[in-house]
Amino acid sequence: MKPGVMSLVVFTGLSGMLLAPGHLNPLQQFITLLCIALGSGAGAAMNMWYDRDIDAIMTRTKKRPIPAGRIAPDDALAFGLFLAAFSVMLMGLGTNWLAALILAFAIFFYVVVYTMWLKRRTPQNIVIGGAAGAFPPMIGWAAVTGGVSLMPLLLFVIIFLWTPPHFWALALYKNEDYTRAGVPMMPVVAGSDSTKRQMMFYTWLLTAVTLLPPLLHLAGAPYAVVAALLDVTFLHHMRKVLHDATDTWPRKAFAFSIYYLFMLFVAMVLDGWWTHAMQ
Asked: Is the pLDDT reported for residue 279 higher than 70?
């Protein structure tokens, strides 16, 4: 179920829920986060079922439960399908059906569009497939409000643009793994130099979008200051990656990218609370 990935997915979903105008009772809050976690785990299980052949080849993934022989492929698929159906149904009954529909589409997008269609066919797999991981804030927001507005869409775009520099940093220092498995990640197909330039491009786009909430009066000065500092630091990491012929800065950039997204969303939530308290 990829608990490391799940934790970030749940956190961004929680952020969308906390930023949304309105209120859920504690039970509904718990159901929302539980369903986001289970939906994420469902996608992960079915991803590992489908990718079990290449997971067995790559050093990063060969110890996963299916290639390691701890779980049978059919059991993993059945587990994933059950979790997907259960999480969507529980979300619909516990909150509203728009949140359930977005959750169902996110699972479908990750398993079918990214895993089965894009991952082995195009170096743009992460760019397009990254949308799957960008849905949780929209799910959290929809669970509270029953709708979607500009703010959750901006949160979606932030995660969407964050994904390429985040994942390509990993792909740079795991390039041999992807080459051996025949997965057309950007460094495998376009080379490291082109990948690094594209990482810088997406980071600049990300910087621009993270500064939109204050400009659109959707966030205040505290968020703007934190976002600017995080953006400058992220751009510094990307500049170092651009000129680094070793794995050192790609590894540092990958680690920092997780911290970056976490702190950006924390700043947004705290800014929202501060703004509300000042009113």
From this structure: no
